[in-house]
Amino acid sequence: MRASKSARFSASKWRSFHKLHFSEHEIVDCLDERNVIGSGSSGKVYRVELSGGEVVVAVKKLNKTAKGGEDDSLNRDVFAAEVETLGTIRHKSIVRLWCCCSSGDCKLLVYEYMPNGSLADVLHSHCKGGVLLGWPERLRIGLDAAEGLSYLHHDCVPPIVHRDVKSSNILLDADYGAKVADFGIAKIGQMSGAKSPEAMSGIAGSCGYIAPEYVYTLRVNEKSDIYSFGIVLLELVTGKQPTDLELGDKDMVKWVCSTLDQCGLESVIDPKLDLGFKEEISKVIHIGLLCTSPLPLNRPSMRKVVIMLQEVSGAVSSSRPNASKRSKSSGKLSPYYVEDVNSV
């Protein structure tokens, strides 16, 4: 009889970062293709129910690499670096890493499960029965994500650069609170002590979100993240993806600026939004355009972005305290992590 998956992982090296209310070996036996909820170049993500369904986690299983090769060594180093980094992070707007496992050429990362999938999935879902995010919800999501990125930039030592900020890497919990995800696997080189110029010069980012200076420098830093976050803010306002065909030959920033000049504010705002929030939406557009300034030095820090969004959020709360109730989950299982075909 073939040994169970958990038996084959009996010699695995498990490492926990929080008090666990489940058994690590419970996880392994649930890594079934029927539980896959997303996949990408780095591996697959599974939705795993534990303790009789009382606990749900998301398990990322990293792809295998050739033993003894350069990729194998790099994979081990990157995994170790991510584990060391993510294991120390404690922030409400960062997806929590519960534990991890390293067993030969198989590596698992166990995260908290975000039942409402990604912001991209909810914001751009045209499926029947999809959730409509009102402006207060969108603003809260933007503020939550900004706080997470500010923590990475300003409160982590050394600072962590996400390198792939986009709406599909902002995940939503049961109450549509937002948490930043997927900032470790391919983006932790500088944190592991690498000092060569190539440490942070690998191809990073996704089409439509990449800062313009990256084209000629092939380098990323905090200002690159801020540009990408500015695109997310404009995405929240317009309801359009940065690669939307409706933008024509323009990028998101140029489309917003030209549409504002030629057609006015209402033509920029997602028609599904309540125009009663027009003043607050206009302020967020301004913040988004500041973040996407062509010159990196002119972009505000994420700490400053948080302050500006808090001011807008305060205005929304005081003007319409009961304007919008949070949407309830439709119960639809959304993708937790799907590699964007436009990733570069």
TrEMBL record:
Q: Which domain of life is it from?
A: Eukaryota
Cellular component, GO annotation = plasma membrane
Can you say what this protein is called? non-specific serine/threonine protein kinase
> Organism, per UniProt?
Brassica napus (Rape)
Its recorded reaction(s) are:
L-threonyl-[protein] + ATP = O-phospho-L-threonyl-[protein] + ADP + H(+); L-seryl-[protein] + ATP = O-phospho-L-seryl-[protein] + ADP + H(+)
Q: Which SUPFAM superfamilies match?
A: Protein kinase-like (PK-like) (SSF56112)
Instruction: Indicate how the chain sits in the lipid bilayer.
Output: Single-pass membrane protein; Single-pass type I membrane protein
Question: Which EC number(s) does UniProt give?
Answer: 2.7.11.1
Keywords, sorted A to Z:
ATP-binding, Cell membrane, Glycoprotein, Kinase, Leucine-rich repeat, Membrane, Nucleotide-binding, Phosphoprotein, Repeat, Serine/threonine-protein kinase, Signal, Transferase, Transmembrane, Transmembrane helix
Which residues are noted in the entry as ATP-binding? 61
